[in-house]
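just leaving the lab so this will be short. what follows is a protein written twice so to speak, once as letters and once as structure tokens for the fold. can you read through it and tell me how you think this chain folds. anything you notice is useful, everything is just below:
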Amino acid sequence: MFTGIVEDTGEISLVRTQGETLIGVKPSKLDADSIQIGESIAVNGVCLTVVSIENGAFFVQASDETLSKTTLGEAVRGAVVNLERSVSPDGLMGGHIVTGHIDGVGEIESAAERGESVEFIVSLPPEYMKYIVPKCCVTLNGVSLTVNDADDKGFSVNIIPHTLSHTTFSSLSAGSKVNFECDIVAKYVERLVGFSGEKTS
């Protein structure tokens, strides 16, 4: 489990597509040697398992399903990604509950300065907009954000200067693709409300 509070950014150092795709990431500040093999790390919001560590970089494997549903399917060497290690039992829940199981890919429709912050308008596939509620949470590229406003087509979020300087949001603009994860609580509520518990023959 994650919180959506990005711990570091890193640069993709390797994308090997023979067989299971292997992706290498070199953190900018995080000591790669402090990471354990088998540990879960969110890479741009995608929960991945560390399979090896070498020369200041950690390596993760990505399945075809992950590549098809996230922006990692277009990952290239040199790209910068957001990183978060899984939260420990005694860790702070600074954002909200994030699973790292990406729902899909959205698109930045516009980015406009609002004082010192930047307002991003984001569009998602229509079937996911029912989970987007003003003043509630959404995760974009692994960052826990509060929804400002929403309609049937998209929603807006404000990115404060701290988040801009500590994540990859400073490099995003209209047309950029982002991984999104809707609030899992909303999904559970939908399931509970719609589930009758009756057996079907």
Q: What stands out?
A: Residues 184-194 form the longest helix (11 residues). The domain at 8-85 is CATH 2.40.30.20 (Elongation Factor Tu (Ef-tu); domain 3).
